[in-house]
Design brief:
Oligomer: single chain
């Protein structure tokens, strides 16, 4: 006789954005990519002590005994898949949406059923391509335990769930060209359970920042020229140039996924201290002491990051 019982678990639900278009363009290539990506997902899910419950079409359901590990697994999945997609043409990228919910489910054999699963599926349908949306029950458990940001989306209107579900977007830097928060909350609240959403824009994700870099470069060049044309023996332009360089580095840190954000910020702080010391040189390398403190903080971050990623 099949064992049927109820249990509290964390449900992880994922599917592919715009799967029909990908299949229409290249069936065999899309299926091969789907298998490769799902194998990567299954490996990361298992690494975080989760279990793949079911796969169907382009979707996947998994469960985790730990809410924190479920969110960490989702972050690792989106980060790894973003790296794989970077090697592909924009119109051939396979972007997954992930929804996570903590809820009571009915377990029957290896399968799970119930509203807890339905809510995870609706949250997944509300996520942007390459993104993660979690329920408030998940957020309450992970908000101080996972080193990412969260954005409150309000109450999402989802099909067959009376009163909707409060959702939070996980901010991991893998979702490209997102709309401003107020627009995104309104759109996601209206579309909630719709799986037939418009394809993500193919506009390069760093275009806005590239424009900022260009503006900063022009202003910096103008300041240098002005300093030289009004030369009075002091190269005062070094200070605004340092500020512009700091802004450019921070923009890069915000966009990159190649390095840990906290480590990148600590490295930026260290370079800034050295630059200020050298630009105001009076014969003493006083920067060694703040650099010592920054190095300790970076070492602690590295150890903590290595521990929490396992």
């Amino acid at each position: 006789m099949t064992d049927t019982h109820r249990k509290l678990t964390t449900i992880f639900c994922a599917d592919v954005q715009d799967y029909s278009r990908l299949m229409g363009a290249d069936e065999e290539g899309t299926l091969a990519t789907l298998k490769r990506y799902r194998d990567a997902m299954a490996r990361l899910i298992e690494a975080h002590e989760g279990r793949v419950v079911n796969t169907w079409g382009d979707g996947l359901i998994a469960e985790f005994p730990s809410v924190v590990e479920a969110v960490r697994a989702a972050i690792d999945v989106q980060t790894e898949l973003a790296g794989l997609n970077a090697e592909r043409q924009s119109d051939a990228r396979m972007l997954f949406r992930i929804g996570i919910n903590l809820g009571d489910v009915i377990a029957e054999g290896n399968d799970i059923y119930g509203d807890g699963v339905n809510i995870a599926a609706r949250l997944q349908a509300s996520a942007p391509a390459g993104g993660i949306v979690i329920s408030s029950t998940v957020y309450d458990q992970v908000r101080n335990k996972v080193a990412v940001g969260f954005e409150f989306l309000g109450r999402l209107e989802v099909k067959n769930i009376e009163g909707g579900v409060q959702g939070y977007a996980v901010r991991i830097g893998t979702v490209e060209d997102q709309a401003p928060p107020t627009e995104r909350i309104g759109e996601w609240g209206r579309r909630g359970a719709s799986a037939d959403r418009a394809p993500a824009s193919d506009e390069p994700s760093g275009r806005a920042d590239h424009r900022v870099f260009g503006v900063l470069a022009v202003i910096a060049a103008g300041i240098v020229v002005f300093n030289l044309l009004s030369w009075e023996g002091v190269f005062w332009a070094r200070w605004p140039l340092l500020a512009f360089a700091l802004v450019a580095i921070l923009l890069w840190v915000r966009k990159t996924r190649a390095v840990d954000g906290v480590l990148a910020l600590l490295g930026t702080a260290g370079l800034t201290v050295i630059a200020v010391n050298l630009l105001s040189w009076e014969g003493t390398f006083w920067a060694i002491w703040p650099l010592f403190g920054i190095a300790i903080a970076a070492a602690i971050r590295w150890i903590v990051r290595g521990t929490t990623s396992r």
